[in-house]
Amino acid sequence: LGDIGGARPFRRDPYQFIDNENWNKSKNKLVRKILAPHAMDTVSIDYMKDMVKISDEFGIPMHMHLSQTQKERDFCIEKYGRSPVQVALD
């Protein structure tokens, strides 16, 4: 998921993914869906906070790429004055 960059830069309501009755149904009990904001340079802070809230509310794990490119680091330093890791920890 991302709303400011990446392959599909538009905001999608994260609740749409978990309101589905089949959210955690799988043929394999080891496979589980999670929330996956893409990276700090493709997800706005507000959108990230929305996903963290949902993650906490429903006990859903999150996964994201963090500080994997110089471009992402440069973006965060320029926009937020901090590294991607520092921004994510806030």
Number of helices: 4
* Proportion of residues in β-strands: under 5%
What is the alpha-carbon Rg in Å?
Answer: 14 Å
Instruction: Using the alpha-carbon principal axes, give the shape.
Output: elongated
Question: Share of helix among residues?
Answer: 25-40%
Q: Give the total of beta strands.
A: 0
Uncertain residue ranges = none
SSE-based structural type = mainly alpha
| Order of secondary-structure elements | HHHH
Describe what you observe in this structure.
By secondary structure, the protein is mainly α. Helix content is 39%, strand content 0%. It is built from 4 helices and no strands. The longest helix is centred in the middle third of the chain and has 14 residues. The protein is elongated. The model has no long low-confidence stretch (mean pLDDT 83).
List its traits.
90 residues; single chain; elongated; mainly alpha
Write the layout of secondary structure elements.
Elements: H1 15-18, H2 45-58, H3 70-80, H4 84-89
